[in-house]
Write a structure and sequence with these properties.
8 helices; 197 residues
Length: 197
C-alpha cells in the first residue's frame, strides 16, 4: 500500500497523465487512504510552520525575524491543520456534487482520493514553513497552486472518464468552488494570525 502511494506521489510530478489513469483504475479504502495520506500530508505545513515560527521566526523581507512563543505557535499549527483537513473534505464534497451533476458514476470516496492527490503540491509547498519569509511563502504557494490546477484540469477527464470538453467545465466549476474556499481559508488564517500576533 505504502509503495503504491509513493509511486503515485512521484508519478504525479513526472508523468501525471499516466499516473491519473493508474490511480483511476485502482480500488482504495477511504479509511485506509485517509489515515495514510490526508492525515500525514495535512500535517506537513502545520509542523513546518510550527518549527519555522518558533525556531527561525517569521519575516516580511528576510532580514528581521520575529519568533512566536511555542504555546501560541502550537495553537496556530493545530488550527492550521484542522483548516487544511476541513478544506480538503469540503473540496471533495464539491467535486462529488459536480460528478453527480454531470451524470457520471459518482462516489465521494473516489472524489476524496482525487482531491487529496490533486492537493499534494500544496501540501508539500508547506515545507517552506521551515523558513517563514512572507514573500517566499507566497511564491512557493502560488507555484504549488498552479501545479495543482494543472493536475486538476488534466486529471478530471481521465479520472472521471468523461470527454475533455465536459472535463474542462467540471474542472472550472471545481476551481470556482476552490476559490471561494481559498478566500474563506485566508480569512480564517488572518483571524488566527491576528489573535496570536
Amino acid at each position: 500500500m505504502y509503495t503504491r502511494h509513493k509511486k503515485h506521489f512521484f508519478g504525479l510530478f513526472s508523468v501525471p497523465r499516466v499516473e491519473w489513469k493508474s490511480i483511476s483504475d485502482e480500488k482504495t479504502d477511504l479509511t485506509q487512504f485517509g489515515l495514510t495520506r490526508l492525515i500525514f500530508f495535512a500535517a506537513v505545513p502545520a509542523i513546518s510552520f510550527l518549527i519555522g515560527l518558533t525556531q527561525v521566526g517569521w519575516s516580511l523581507s528576510g532580514t528581521d525575524y520575529n519568533k512566536v512563543a511555542m504555546g501560541y505557535a502550537f495553537l496556530m499549527a493545530v488550527a492550521f491543520y484542522v483548516l487544511i483537513v476541513v478544506a480538503t473534505l469540503l473540496m471533495a464534497y464539491f467535486t462529488f456534487a459536480m460528478e453527480r451533476a454531470f451524470g457520471t458514476e459518482a462516489s465521494f470516496e473516489r472524489c476524496f482520493i482525487f482531491v487529496t492527490y490533486t492537493a499534494t503540491p500544496m501540501y508539500m509547498a508547506g515545507l517552506v514553513g521551515f523558513l517563514p519569509i512572507v514573500w517566499l511563502c507566497m511564491m512557493v504557494l502560488m507555484a504549488a497552486v498552479f501545479y495543482s490546477l494543472y493536475l486538476l484540469y488534466i486529471g478530471i477527464p481521465i479520472y472521471m472518464n468523461i470527454p475533455e470538453g465536459k472535463g474542462f467545465i467540471v474542472a472550472t466549476s471545481i476551481v470556482s468552488a476552490g476559490l471561494c474556499m481559498m478566500v474563506c481559508f485566508n480569512v480564517a488564517t488572518v483571524i488566527i494570525w491576528s489573535i496570536v500576533v
